[in-house]
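Feature request disguised as a bug report, sorry. It would help if multi-protein outputs had a clear separator. Right now it looks like this:
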Amino acid sequence: MIKTVVGSFDTFSEAAAAARDLRGAGFLDSDVNVIANNTRAIGRDDKDIEEKTSGTATGIVAGGALGGAAGLAASLMGLAIPGIGPILAAGPIAAALAGAGAGAVAGGLIGGLTDLGVNETHAEFYAEAVRRGAALVTVRADDAEQIIRRHGAFDIEERVLQWKSAGWKGYDPRSEPFTFEEIERDRTQWHAAPRGPATEIGRMENS
């Protein structure tokens, strides 16, 4: 049975590199999705957040990062998700999220992930990771784990334990998006934290 493999990354560049390698290994663009928080890119710029999210500048830069994954780069969209903030999305999930409209709630991302075969609990973990500045790569395949792992995917369940140790009570769709400063602080805290052996790169979900 084909599974959906989800890799969680601390940076968009890591996720983009994983997506490029998946495409180079023969995986179809239609089976690969990239979802990344875009607040850090906007935070370096004085432009209005809506202009930056929907404009072409971000798409050009991120499309270049996706490199040889031409189909993914062409489908790249900048979106604003209430409760999560500005994101970049590429692959079939981008059109699904865009189709939800400007009034979509944060559950739109969770719904998009569950449609890919991710169970709701883990979809909430992944949505929280994106809210905190992370990037996701999903691929429908049985043999993509090594490529995802090679590019530095973190163990989502281990990261959730770290969040809980700091008082996180669980995903709340009513939460405010993280600010640029909060993302920088969170990234520094958890990226530098000691990690135990990673037993999984995400959760392989039956689809």
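(second protein starts here, but nothing in the output says so)
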Amino acid sequence: MTARELVLLGRTPHLGAFGAPGAADRAAAEAALDEMDASALAGEDIRAMSGGERQRVLLARVLAGAPSVLLLDEPTANLDPRHRFLVLGAVRRRAESGGTVLFSTHELDVAVQGAGGRVLAEGPLGATLTEALLSELFAVSARVTPGPDGAPLVSFGPPATR
């Protein structure tokens, strides 16, 4: 399977029961490949790609589908520094245009980008997982309540009016 074919699979939810990708689907796939700096890989077999190249193609597949919610686990894994920040830019653009983005990372340089490059809090969970901090970080209203097992439950609402 080529990278282009894989990215086109991201358009599947838009095709209907027996639909085939049309011009708009191909354009969305090409735009996603371009956004992930993977256009040059479009005709390449995904099995022959490096881990970072494959990661960018897989992310392009997700972006081609134009989801309103992105749930990403380590989206910058296997990427060099340039491509890590390219991915973060794409994710940030989705959030800024009204999409919902949630991602996990263990890369500290990536994590601080979500906080504008500053440490917002440090310490034990109870001292850092607060409504005020979460509201500041995500620019929405946040509520933290104890769950049935005592662990905090977090819920988010629309942006707080200021």
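Even a blank line would do. Unrelated, but nice: The longest helix spans residues 81-96.
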